[in-house]
Amino acid sequence: MPTSFDYAAHLKSAIRTVPDWPQPGVMFRDITPLLQTPRTFRLLIDVFVHRYMDADVDLIAGLDARGFIIGSVLAYELNLGFVPIRKKGKLPFTTVAEEYELEYGNATVEMHTDACRAGDRVVLVDDLVATGGTMMAGYKLLQKLGAEVVEAAAIIELPELKGGELIRTAGLPLYTVCSFDGE
Length: 183
Hints:
Blueprint: H1 7-13, E1 16-19, E2 27-30, H2 32-36, H3 38-52, E3 59-63, H4 66-78, E4 81-87, E5 95-102, E6 105-112, E7 121-129, H5 133-144, E8 148-157, H6 163-169, E9 174-179
Parallel strand pairs: 3-4, 3-7, 7-8, 8-9
Antiparallel strand pairs: 1-2, 4-6, 5-6
Helix pairs in contact: 3-4
Catalytic activity: AMP + diphosphate = 5-phospho-alpha-D-ribose 1-diphosphate + adenine
InterPro entries: Ade_phspho_trans, PRTase-like, PRTase_dom, UPRTase/APRTase
EC number: 2.4.2.7
């Protein structure tokens, strides 16, 4: 008889915690070990593919930089276009910008003004939701261009930083694979 496999626990176990990076008091959740093992990386992508394979979605948007890793592979697997949402000053064409707060500072993200069209249905992807600032900035950028963000998705949620709560309160559904709450 087959046994039940807890994919979320398996993926979570592959995430490394780096204390005090990039500054004291921050517990950085590093996804690179998860990506280095082909079976684990494939499992991660498959989780997202199965979630969105029957969804009415036109584009995947990924947040700089780790959202590019998951988002671009997901877009490829779903045969959809990919929209990069970059840190300020990295895109060569006309852009729209949104400033936001991180758990350890401020930043700005930008997107090309022709990255999506009004009415496009988009899944917004990043590796982690902490304070929710990056995800909300990406959400606002896509809305400025008339896109409908159908869901935000991330590998990790850090509930103690309240970002997931902020995103859900804004009316944006949020899907995460695992969470680190007080760990």
